[in-house]
Design brief:
Elements lengths: L4 H18 L1 H19 L3 E2 L2 E2 L3 H7 L4 H39 L11 H18 L6 H27 L2 H15 L10 H12 L6 H15 L6 H14 L5 H22 L2 H14 L9 H27 L11 H13 L5 H7 L1 H9 L2 H7 L9 H6 L3 H49 L10 E10 L9 E7 L4 E9 L4 H19 L4 H15 L5 E9 L4 E7 L4 E5 L2 E5 L17 E6 L5 E5 L6 H9 L5 H10 L8 E10 L2
Antiparallel strand pairs: 1-2, 3-12, 4-5, 5-6, 6-7, 7-10, 8-9, 8-11, 11-12
Helix pairs in contact: 2-3, 2-4, 3-4, 3-6, 4-5, 5-6, 6-7, 7-8, 7-9, 8-9, 8-10, 8-12, 9-10, 11-12, 13-19, 14-19, 15-16, 19-21, 20-21
């Protein structure tokens, strides 16, 4: 049966609206407008009449593009609008220098480092401030202000970077407070302060959240520092937040009555007292009270989530404490010949008639004769009667028993030393497992924290090819790929030692264990360390070399963890760079020297990352990759694998590349 026109039209309109919003052009326009507005209002950020380095901190963390240019234009225009052309010269120069630095270092590895642009911004702020400082009469207050701006630029850049790239809750709230702080410096028609009004409205709307009072206090402090009002804005916003929280649950009528009262007070303060700050605060309170709030449905779940986080962190601290207590291992048993001879004398010579003659009156001569056997014991692991000096054998009446007892005590000492070493290794193994478990629990606690969804800007393309060493033979190379979330993808490549069924079993077991740990939220380093301890516990001599690739599709970055695996290659245009060094696989030891190698890479600009196993690595592979000009990754993987046939080992190749999502 056909549906009506109305039934077909609504989904079509909704899908059309969704398609329009999701268009890349619309998103670019929205991002550009937001960047311009934020930079413009951040230009008004001030403290006690002096401008703050917030606006060009925003320019420093944006990538090169239209939003970046819009932010630079907004910063320049806003600086002139807020401070006038004379004072705005310094901020404008800093903005131009930062934009130049971003353009120079674009598409470089340095830009991917979190501290690079914050330090550049702080340095340029300090240097430019000093240049302008020397053009005016000396003032100690102005000099301190110049250094304060340079120091403040670094943490502000880090906060903005965390807010833009990771959408972390605290960073987003601090960024919102900084924008409101800049808005407080403007007054519309000398009657209305939008910053104060928005700060009041946000404080009242956010009242039911767990950090509502904190946000109100931060907004109030921002308004007080800017000097936008003579009132104690911090106290007013905190009181308004608590009032909004009390009127929130099932008291909608009371909230609207309070909103009407605030609106009336706003009109009275404007008409009678001509107080723009009071008018703005009352207007914002009325607007905030008009939004009907409800107790969040997930309040109980949020409380339970916090309790679970606290428990996980507490358990992690317990494991860390146990690990710290077990660091003091027992001392190593030293192979000391004097100790062996002393114990032998107690067992053999104590009941001999010549004991007092040998070990009292002639003790020095006896000890000198026996010390000559130290090198023999270390070299041969035992002694014979012929090894003793003639002066000692001529006098000893129990030579055969003495020799046998020396060898017995030596064997007991070696057993004790082996036991101590085994106990120390087991303690190290326990410490490693405790440390990894504590890290897993802390990661689980962090993953339960509230975050805004992070937008995905890249899509993943892969190509995989493998072949066994010989036809009709099983390959020991295993590959797995899975998504932890929309923005994080893991790729695991395991190379089982050798070839055949045993290598295949080891590769599958390692790849499955690693992927299960990674999808459970375990960090790659901790997952590899747990794999190492698992190999040490089973002690069957079956190992796998491992590559773990963590891809961040929101930032276009990759983290490569290599442990005993063959070389990996990064192709950028005609240049090929090799990563990885020869190292033993996991399962051969424990300690700081037994750790995976970590490599941070950027795949934002079409680079191709190639992971290989032993049968496909080498100079020929590097040359073929350098000369390859195609764009088909499965074809590239197959070309690199089958060009090495026949080989000395199983061969596998994974080719990875990121494309912009739109």
């Amino acid at each position: 049966m056909r549906g009506t026109i109305k039934e077909y039209t609504r989904p079509d309109l909704r899908s059309l609206r969704t398609r329009l919003v999701s268009l890349p052009v619309m998103q670019v326009i929205a991002h550009t407008a937001a960047a311009f507005a934020c930079a413009f209002f951040l230009s008004g950020a001030s403290a006690f009449g002096a401008w703050l380095p917030c606006t060009f901190c925003l320019c420093a963390i944006l990538p090169l593009g239209l939003p970046f240019l819009a932010a630079g234009a907004g910063a320049a225009i806003g600086s002139v609008e807020y401070w006038g052309i004379d004072i705005a010269l310094a901020p404008i120069c800093i903005v131009l220098l930062i934009m130049t630095a971003v353009a120079i270092f674009n598409n470089t590895v340095a830009m991917e480092q979190p501290l690079f642009m914050p330090l550049i911004t702080g340095g340029l702020t300090l240097v430019t401030g000093l240049i302008f400082f020397f053009d005016v009469p000396f003032s100690l207050q102005q000099l301190c202000l110049v250094f304060l701006r340079g120091l403040l630029a670094v943490p502000v850049c880090l906060i903005y970077r965390k807010a833009v790239t990771e959408r972390e809750r605290t960073a987003l709230l601090l960024s919102l407070v900084s924008v409101l702080h800049g808005l407080c410096g403007r007054t519309v028609f000398a009657l209305f302060n939008p910053g104060l009004a928005l700060a009041m409205a946000v404080s009242m709307i956010w009242a039911l959240q767990s950090d509502g009072l904190l946000l109100a206090a931060l907004c109030g402090l921002a308004a007080d520092v800017s000097g936008a009002a003579s009132l104690p804005v911090t106290a007013v916003l905190c009181l308004a937040s608590e009032t909004s929280r009390l009127l929130a649950v099932r008291r909608t009528l009371l909230r609207f009555l309070a909103a009407a009262l605030c609106g009336l007070i706003a009109l009275i303060s404007l008409a009678v007292f001509q107080n723009d700050a009071a008018f703005s605060l009352c207007f914002g309170a009325a607007a905030g009270l008009c939004v009907p709030l409800r107790q969040p449905e997930n309040a109980t779940a949020e409380l339970a989530s916090r309790q679970i986080q606290q428990r996980l962190r507490s358990i992690a601290n317990v494991f860390s404490g146990i690990r710290a207590d077990n660091r003091k291992t027992q001392t190593e048993v030293v192979l000391d010949p004097d100790q062996i001879f002393d114990r032998t004398a107690e067992r053999v010579c104590r009941g001999c008639l010549l004991f007092h003659s040998c070990w009292e009156s002639s003790a020095e001569e006896t000890c000198t004769a026996l010390r000559q056997l130290g090198s023999v014991i270390h070299m041969h692991g035992g002694v014979e009667q012929e090894d003793f000096p003639a002066s000692f054998t001529a006098r000893c009446r129990h030579m055969e028993q003495f020799t046998a007892t020396v060898n017995e005590e030596l064997e007991l000492l070696l057993c004790r030393r082996q036991y101590k070493r085994s106990l120390a290794e087991h303690r190290l193994l326990l410490q490693e497992q405790m440390d990894c478990t504590a890290g897993i629990l802390r990661s689980a606690a962090e993953s339960a924290a509230w975050r805004l969804p992070i937008p995905v800007h890249f899509r993943l393309e892969t190509g995989f090819s493998t072949r066994a060493k010989e036809l009709r033979c099983r390959s020991g190379d295993q590959c797995m790929c899975a998504e932890l979330s929309e923005e994080i993808t893991y790729i695991v490549l395991c190379d089982g030692m050798g070839t055949g069924e045993e290598a295949e079993r080891a590769g599958k077991k390692s790849a499955k264990l690693l992927m299960e740990l990674l999808l459970a939220g375990c960090a790659p380093t901790d997952a590899l360390r747990l794999l190492n301890t698992a190999y040490l516990v089973q002690a069957d001599g079956v190992f796998s070399a491992v590559d773990v690739l963590r891809l961040d599709l929101s930032r276009g970055q990759a983290e490569l963890y290599k442990w005993g695996s063959s070389a990996s290659y990064l192709k950028r245009f005609q240049n090929v760079k090799t990563y990885g060094k020869a190292a033993p696989p996991p399962g051969l030891g424990i300690g700081k020297e037994y750790r995976p190698e970590k490599v941070q890479l950027s795949l934002r600009h079409g680079e191709i990352l190639v992971l290989t196993t032993d049968g496909a690595a080498g100079e020929k592979t590097c040359e073929r990759l350098r000369s390859y000009v195609g764009a088909n990754l499965p074809q590239l993987a197959g070309y690199l694998v089958h060009s090495t046939f026949p080989g000395t080992d199983d061969a596998s190749v994974i080719a990875v590349r990121l494309y912009p999502k739109h």
